[in-house]
Batch of 2 targets.
Target 1
Amino acid sequence: MSQFKEITVNGLWKQNPGVVQLLGLCPTLAVTTTVVNGVSLGLATALVMAASNGAVSPVRRFVPNEIRLPVFILVIAALVTVIDLLIHAFAAPLHKVLGIFVPLIVVNCIVLGRVDAFAAKNPPAPAIWDGFIMGIGLTLVLGLLGGMRELLGKGTLFSGLDLALGENFKSVVLTLIPDYQGFLLAALPPGAFLGLGFLIAAHNWLEQRKVSKKPMPSASGTLKPAH
Amino acid sequence: MPETIFKHTTKTAATLVAFAFTFTLLMTVVYQVTKDPIAKSEAEVRINLFHQVIADDRYDNDVLNDTINIPPNSLLGNKQASVVHIARKNGDPVAFILEAVAHDGYSGDIKLLVAINLDGTISGVRVIKHAETPGLGDYIDIVKSNWIKLFDGESLSKTSSANWAVKKDGGHFDYMAGATITPRAVISAVHKALQYFEENKSRLLNASADSKIQQKTSLNEENQI
């Protein structure tokens, strides 16, 4: 049980793929123009990661070391294709929002990273949990970054939720700053880099504060705070 | 020990082939299962677009499948053969729905759907696909603003050639500050689509009459069976 707890803490905080491992920046920066886009892609990634970790872990002993990467990529690409087709067929509105981003998950190195670093060495249950929770950790970062950029760039929050979930959710869309002209920098890719920089800084600051309060860092702590 | 190397290589290759086979099989199955729902949802998306560019009570045919194939044309900006959809009421064409492409947008091609009435006025225009800057040039998309409705009712006779431009360039059309390249591209694409329609109107009408006869013949054949 403690193993699952450790996986959870690692995925959500200590080894968060978005702000610590810094893997998968391509979608992080491209997609996070709104909360809805960020969270949707994050959840799709979590699904792919859980599925690919779950697919690789049971067969890990049959995969010779020399061809493990081609096999993993094959598995991930196939699963992404399958998930893309399923979303397109049975959740068409969501596909309209995520559309071009789903195939991008294949090239997201966080997926291959977790398969190679965790699923190839662990039994299926923890592997699936690791993939899922790492994806959720990424989702949190994508959602936060999307929220920052949407608020600064457009003055709204949750815009596009009605496109993803149906007209009923139109009332959830918040226009926090009415008649806002928009801050273009936040909506453009440089805004994503700057926003991510602030998130990493905040993460490091919180970690450092924790370390300075507690002079003995825990043995499982893998993060080395910056000086 | 050449034998063990040979054995090892064979085993490795066989594993890779087995994985490729298994997952190709998985994808094939999912593709077959999802093929029809996907085709259906794509057709729904297009039908929904047709509803937006032409009023429901103006036509009574299956616009999606009532089409004429046309060769690539520089006025439409398409590089491949495309289809023109015909909207009919009681069998007579009332409007043609063309696909036009603007290559001079800010970022990539802008694909448009332009519905033109028989008298040469525009019934409606919608952007099907674009990659303009979010929050800046994307107001051409109906999801973001009503700008694209400026074209409703426009025609070559109503607005002279020189006025098919944004106000900044001395034209007739409003635009939003900060993004003029995008509306310029859309306005010129719609203008050219109207020119295409004027030049090819008689040909399109003839083709639509032909396709009507074909439809009738095919119906008769079904009746005979």
Note: The first helix of chain B runs from residue 2 to 53.
Target 2
Amino acid sequence: MFASMTYPGAFGDFDRLRRELDDLFGLAGLPTGIRSAAPGAFPALNIGNTPTSVEVYAFAPGIDPAQVDVTIDRGVMTISGERPSALPGDDAKAGVYAQERFAGRFRRAVSLPDDIDPSKVEATYRDGVLRVSVARRESALPKRITVQ
Amino acid sequence: MNDTMVAERQENLQDAGRNAGQAPARQPRDREQPTMTPRVDVLEDGTGITLLADLPGVARDALEIHVEGDALTIEGQVSAATPQAMEATYAEVRVPRYRRMFTLSRELDGNRIEAQLKDGVLRLRIPKQDHAQPRRVQVKVA
């Protein structure tokens, strides 16, 4: 699974260089999220909070939204699926120069805050970005209390 | 080192070789704005080159493709479709702009490039000039 989340070839070399630099500067020992993936993992994630929801954006261009699994289990959201390769098979007539785009199975996990409502989830896919919006529980929303 | 720099340098070298002594007519660009380099696949077959670029979050009207001489530039703005009151807690995509440059070689026809953008993937088809397409040479037996 690890191999499918990073890029082979030259990127592997850069990844090794990054690890060595991390060791050199003493960053390797710093804590990271238990489910955090190596830099450059597919899809890239942005996460944000609004007063009423938690928004997760997965930058996953060129996938079939019907083939993506989004699950929430015990506060952990998992986004997984497969991205087909655009490269020709063993076609001798086509030459491949650059091969930087991700292909294959992917899986990323995000742990959500405690106050979310797993039954109110909306997912949309637009321009290659999957947006998952998870509502917060009604009881967790901020309330104004009127003074009698 | 980024790809933009490499592409530009190659282009400058080619410019220098082609019209030595002439100042290349190039417009200064603003380099203030940081950009991300999109990942690409480049494939070649007998009739041309296909370039695939990952541009997630770029809508059709936010994509710009320029061909200037032999320089191909792909630029796209990530649309900010985030809710107003959103406070980012974690971000792997921090720069809302993609940019990448390529130098086209002479046998490619920059005027007949076709572009398709679907689900954040740009597919460019750059055909070869007609005279550069492979041809089977008939050998006549005298």
Note: The longest helix of chain B spans residues 3-18.
